[in-house]
Amino acid sequence: MKKKFVGVLTAGGDSPGLNAAIRGLGKAALQRYDMQLIGFLDGYRGLMQNRTVRLGGQQLSGILTIGGTILGTSREKPTRMQVGGKFMDMTEAMVDTYQKHHLDVLVCLGGGGTQKSALHLKQAGMNVITLPKTIDNDVAMTDVTFGFDTALGIATEAIDRLHSTAHSHHRIVVVEVMGHNAGWLALGAGVAGGADVILIPEMPYDIEKTAAAILQRSRGGKHFSIVALSEGAMTRQYYGKYSALKEAKANAESKKEKKEVSQELLELEEKHRNHTFWMSRTLEEMTGLESRVTILGYLQRGGTPSAADRLLATRLGTTCATYIAEERYGVMVAARGDGVEPVPLEEVAGNRKTVPTDHHWVDSARAVGTCLGD
Ligand code: F6P
Question: How crowded is residue 310: how many other Cβ atoms within 10 Å of its Cβ?
Answer without folding.
Answer: 23
